[in-house]
Amino acid sequence: MSDCLEEHQTRHYRGRRYGFGPVHDGERILFAVFQSTKRDGFQLVQGSFDNQNLSKNSQSVARLGYVTKSLFYRKIADQLTKGALVGVSWANVSNIRALRADVKLNKGVAKVRAICVLDRVDEGDVEGHATMGFAEGTTRNVNQGQIGTISMKIRLDLANAFSSIVPTDSQPWPWAFLMPLKRIASIVRELFALVRLK
C-alpha cells in the first residue's frame, strides 16, 4: 500500500474542480508563527507542530504561490486566539515529502514516508490552504510506544526542514491579478489529467 495517496487529490469543500489542485513538489509552503507558537528564537522546534493536527492531516500551511499578502493578513494573520503574528517560516514541498521515518519491524527497520502535504480547503479557508500530516506508514503495524518516538523525531525533522522565522515583508508574495490565471492553469491541468487516465 502506497503512502500519501490523498496528495494526488483535490480536497475542496466545493468540489474537486475548485481551488488550485494537488500540491506539487516545486511549490513552497508557508507556516504562520504566532506568539503562542513554540520556537527557539527564530527557529521552529519540535513543539511548533501540533501532534494531534499532524495525526489528523490538519496541520495548516499556506501554498505560497496562491496566497497574496493582503489575503494572508486578512484570513491567516488575524487569528486573535493565537496571539500576535511573529513572522513566517517557509519550506519547499519536495523537502517535506523527502522526510523519512525509521519504523522497526519484525524483520528489521523500514524507512517510510514521514509527512504528506495535501491540498485541503475547508469552508472559511483561503483558496491556497494546504495541510500536512503523518504518512500512513508511520502508524501502520506500529505499537503505541513506537508511534510516540516516531512522531517526536518527525516533528523535529519537520522543524529543521523549514526556514528561519522571517518577517512577512521579506517574503515575495504573488500578485492578486495572477490568481485567475493560476486558477485557469489548474483547470487545464485537471483536464489533461483526465485525458491521460482514459
List the helices and strands and how they pair.
Elements lengths: L9 E3 L15 E7 L4 E2 L2 E2 L6 H5 L3 E5 L5 H7 L9 E8 H5 L2 E6 L2 E6 L1 E7 L7 E6 L9 H18 L17 H19 L1
Parallel strand pairs: 1-9
Antiparallel strand pairs: 2-5, 2-6, 3-4, 5-10, 7-8, 9-10
Description:
This protein has 198 residues and is of the alpha+beta class. It has one domain. The chain is built from 5 helices and 10 strands. The chain has helices at 51-55, 69-75, 93-97, 144-161, 179-197, and strands at residues 10-12, 28-34, 39-40, 43-44, 59-63, 85-92, 100-105, 108-113, 115-121, 129-134. Strands 1-9-10-5-2-6 form a 6-stranded mixed β-sheet. A two-stranded antiparallel ribbon has the order 3-4. A two-stranded antiparallel ribbon has the order 7-8. A hairpin with a 2-residue loop joins strand 7 (100-105) and strand 8 (108-113). The two termini are 23 Å apart. The model has no long low-confidence stretch (mean pLDDT 87).
What would a concise description of this structure say?
This protein has five helices and ten strands, in the order ββββαβαβαββββαα. It has one domain (5-197).
Given helix and strand content, the structural type is alpha+beta
- Quickly count the helices: 5
Spatial order of the strands in the main sheet?
A: 1-9-10-5-2-6
Number of domains: 1
Element string (H = helix, E = strand): EEEEHEHEHEEEEHH
- Distance separating the two termini: 23 Å
Mean pLDDT: 87
Bin the helical content.
25-40%
Q: Quaternary state, please?
A: single chain
Q: Give the C-alpha Rg.
A: 17 Å
- Beta-strand content: 25-35%
Uncertain segments are none
Query: Based on DSSP secondary structure assignment, what is the total number of beta strands?
Result: 10
The biggest beta sheet is recorded as: 6 strands, mixed
- What overall geometry do the principal axes of the alpha carbons give? globular
